[in-house]
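Hi there,

I know you've been waiting on this one. I reran it after we fixed the sequence typo, so this is the corrected version. Both the input and the resulting structure follow.
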Amino acid sequence: MTAVLLAIFMVATDSYIVATAMPTIVADLGGFRLFSWVFAAYLLAQAVTIPIYGRLADLYGRKRVFFAGTGIFLLGSLLCGFAWGMVPLVLFRALEGIGAGAIQPIATTIVGDIYTPVERARMQGYVSGMFGVAAIIGPTLGAFAVEHISWSLVFWVNLPIGAAALIMFGLYLHEHREPRRHRVDYLGSALLMLGIGAPMLALVLIGNIGSVAVAGLMACGAIAITALVAHERQAVEPMLWSRSAVSPASSTAH
C-alpha cells in the first residue's frame, strides 16, 4: 500500500508544485503566452491516455503497465528540468502527462486487486487523503525550491519518489497471469484518443481561435467517436470491450 500512496502522492503533488514555481519559470524562460499550456498539455495528455492504459492493464497486467507509465512520467520530469524554453517545456509536460495517465488509475486498480471489498473503502480513504497532503506540501516545496535551489527541482523531486514506488512494486506486487497472445486495437486506441482529445482541445482554445476552428475540432471528435463505435463492433479485441478478454489477473502484495 505504501507504493500506491507514493505513486498517488507523486502525481497529485505535481500540479501544486509546478503552479507555485511557474512565475519563476516564465521569468527565466520567457514565453508568457504559453503559460497555460504547461498545464493544459499535461492534463490533455493524461485524460486521453487513461482509457488506453486501462485496457492495456487488462491485457498485459497492472504491473507492466504501471512500470511503463511511471517510466514515461519520470523521463518527462527529468526533461522538464532541463527545458531551455517554454515550447520544449510544454512538450516535455505533455510527455509527463502521457505517463501520468497510467499512474493514478492503475495504482487505484491495484488497490482493488489486492484488498478485499471490506478493506477497499479504508484503503481508498488513504488514497484520497494523499490529495489533501499534496495540496499542503506541494506549494510549500515549490516555493522552497525556487527560492533556495532551482526551479528544475520542482520536476526532479518526482525522480526519487517514483524510483521508490517502482522498487516497492517490483519487490512486493506479484501478479498471476496465464500467458496469452493479444492483438492491441491500435486503430480503436487512436480513434478513442482523437474522440476525447479533439473536443477537450476545442474547449481549451475557445477565445483564442475562431469559432469555425472550434466547431471543426468538435466535429472531428464526433466523427472519431462514431467511427470508434463502428470499428469496435468488428475488431478482434476491441479497445473498450471484448467477449474474449481475459479477466483481470489476480494480484497479491506482501
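Quick highlight: Residues 243-249 have pLDDT under 50 and may be disordered.

Best,
R. S.
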